[in-house]
Here is the input.
Amino acid sequence: MSRRIKEDFDDLCDFFKKYSLASIFEEKDFVKQISTCHKKYYSYLVLVIELKEIVNNANYAPCMSQEQYNYVLESCSDVGQALFLVTHGCYKGAKLLLRSSIENFIKAVCFDECPNIVIKKSVYEVFDIAKASITFSGSKKNIFDTIHTEYIELCKDVHTADFTHMEHITALRLFPHFNNDGAENIKRHLLRILPVYITLLCLKYNQRFHNIFYSNQEIIKESILTEYKKEIHNLNIE
Here is the structure.
């Protein structure tokens, strides 16, 4: 190992030893944005944990296989990791994880109708299966459209569509940092994605939703889309 490489590695180790997010949390706009994101993420996390009750449980119709639940859980994990990256100012990385979350969510909710969806290598095919599924039929077609639109937008970052989708990070010492536009963009994606996740799961696994302990149910209700609340609560829709 050359002397310059060794010196740079020592500097890297020193950087990580001293790394702190304290300065980021002094940004009022950041705290406000992350608080809004946390509210939706926490609702989703609580719902995902509550859905474990229906895994291979014949008392619920429909129930959920362990493999299917693993994909639900991974979609939630992706969102959590995206939020972690946002706190550091790694916005492109966060978007890549949100894109992964959508792929895992689509596979999860359609798995019972088409188990082979998890082995499809083409994302186009995954979305075609989802679009034709009972899960996204009727009133839930709008939910599919929202998820699909968000996925298309996030793909622009994956494929670096233009200059606005670049970050040009050349040194780790640039982290942590806060960029209001970057953080706001992630917030907008999360506020569109998470409520549709939650709403669809509450519709699909409606029996389980109504059996969730009331304090957790209230947390979940905070993030259900208003236009679907009557349907979720099995009220007459005229």
About this structure: Confidence is low (pLDDT under 50) at residues 161-168. Residues 30-55+63-226 form one domain. DSSP finds ten helices and no strands in the chain. The chain has one domain: 30-55+63-226.
